[in-house]
């Protein structure tokens, strides 16, 4: 019974990838492989349809982002998620994208998730332990921490790739400082109207910033404000 349920879920995850390819969201084989190997059902709370292309509530007034947004961010960061590189996932939530990043950079790389809700950090670790990135968590190349992601995670900086999973009113300077020369950050910026910004740190330290798409994310804020639902 359990085996056949798991088998059909894997097929549904694969079907989700095929659909994202059909719609042109996924064009990279590497990104397709990674999304296919991390079953989304392990990260979406029971009672939701994990493969449906929509954000889903995960408690604490926040959501797991939609599959097309995860795929878009992975594609935007692909060149900066090569084996051995360092990546930071701010607002790591369920740990889904953190696990995908870890598969991209492999055991010689380093991926850090930072999330300010301790309960989400605990559940994300449990989620990751059930899937393909579990060995990387065990070996220590992947770690998830409780913290204010607006401050980044200096210990493993500088990062080749920084992803921010919540919308900042402005680009946090600490994250810019922790981006490597040649590194890329993908971050939603704005309040009511938000743009997904792609920020490249050039080799001379200057920044090239462009807007990728308009988006709607929960805010990058303090824990108290988030829990009040303001
Ligand atoms: C839209 S959710 C996305 C989570 C994750 N990317 C996923 O898909 O599961 C945004 C996350 O950012 C977290 N967050 C918001 N502000 C934060 C902050 N200042 N520091 C760390 N995490 C924060 C929220 O708790 C939430 O888990």
UniProtKB/TrEMBL annotation:
The keyword S-adenosyl-L-methionine applies. Its EC number is 2.1.1.77. It comes from the Eukaryota. GO terms for cellular component: cytoplasm. Keywords: Methyltransferase, S-adenosyl-L-methionine, Transferase. GO terms for biological process: methylation; protein repair. Belongs to the methyltransferase superfamily. L-isoaspartyl/D-aspartyl protein methyltransferase family. This is Protein-L-isoaspartate O-methyltransferase.
């Amino acid at each position: 019974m359990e085996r056949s349920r798991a088998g059909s879920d894997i097929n549904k995850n694969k079907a989700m990838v095929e659909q994202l390819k059909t719609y042109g969201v996924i064009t990279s084989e590497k990104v397709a492989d990674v999304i296919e190997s991390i079953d989304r059902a392990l990260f979406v709370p029971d009672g939701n349809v994990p493969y449906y292309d929509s954000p889903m509530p995960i408690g604490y007034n926040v959501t797991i982002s939609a599959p097309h947004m995860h795929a878009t961010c992975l594609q935007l960061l692909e060149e900066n998620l090569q084996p051995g590189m360092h990546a930071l996932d701010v607002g790591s939530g369920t740990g889904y994208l953190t696990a995908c990043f870890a598969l991209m950079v492999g055991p010689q790389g380093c991926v850090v998730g930072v999330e300010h809700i301790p309960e989400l950090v605990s559940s994300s670790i449990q989620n990751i332990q059930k899937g393909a990135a579990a060995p990387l968590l065990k070996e220590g190349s992947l770690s998830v921490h409780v913290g204010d992601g607006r401050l980044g995670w200096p210990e493993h900086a500088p990062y080749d790739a920084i992803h921010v999973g919540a919308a900042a009113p402005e680009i946090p300077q600490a994250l810019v400082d922790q981006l490597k020369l040649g590194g890329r950050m993908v971050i939603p910026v704005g309040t009511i109207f938000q743009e997904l910004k792609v920020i490249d740190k050039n080799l001379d330290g200057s920044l090239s910033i462009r807007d990728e798409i308009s988006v709607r994310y929960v805010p990058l804020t303090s824990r108290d404000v988030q829990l009040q639902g303001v």
